[in-house]
Amino acid sequence: MTLKIGVLGVQGAVSEHVEALNDTLKMMNLEGSVVIVKNLSQLENVHGLVIPGGESTTIGRVAKEKGLMDKIIRKAEEGLPVLGTCAGLVLLAKEVYDAKIGVTKQPLLGLMNIKVIRNAFGRQRESFEVDLEIPVLGEKPFPAVFIRAPIVEKVWGETKILAKYENKIVAVQEKNLLAAAFHPELVDDRRFHQYFVRIVLSKK
Q: Can 185 be counted among the known catalytic residues?
């Protein structure tokens, strides 16, 4: 079984996710390739898609201009597994607010039943790493790197909470959609990517 996983390549931590996914496929003894998705044709045959961290407004605007937003929405609604990290979490949300400016008018995929607050930790905590309990990954804590991170303020429908930090929701899953406020691609621990690849395998 040959997997093809795409990383949305319009802006953000693209190469880090490509490396993490290539490592993950090797560790899981899976044949497959990781492609950077910049246009509609590259999105066509992927079995899973990662939306990386970066600047959510920029990623959304450029992806919309290229016609990628509507295509991602359609494919995700048909069951395509999507992982969103940091900015990717913001883009997946149905409701987004900014800690400073309130309602944002940015383009969103609006696929997950979650309300997200951007820049939730404030400027005092621009970047930090914590050992995070994520039960679906096993007993060992996950080294989670937060950079100007959002949080999930509320979930509804079939969205499950996977992890909290200081009582704030920082990882969620809704069927084929997985999202994290932190950056799993920036650490050597590949369990979060493995969890996503297992979702991809279950839908293939």
A: yes
| 123 contacts: CB under 8 Å, gap ≥ 6 | none
Q: What pLDDT, in 10s, does the model give residues 41-67?
A: 999 999 999 999 988 999 999 999 999
Listed in sequence order, the DSSP H helices in 120-174 are: none
pTM of model > 0.85: yes
| Cα 54 to Cα 194: distance, rounded to the nearest angstrom | 22
- How far is Cα 20 from Cα 9, in angstroms, rounded to an integer? 15
The second-level CATH assignment, the architecture, of 2-203 is 3-Layer(aba) Sandwich (3.40)
| Catalytic entry in 86, 133, 174, 193 | 86
The token pair at 55 is 């600047």
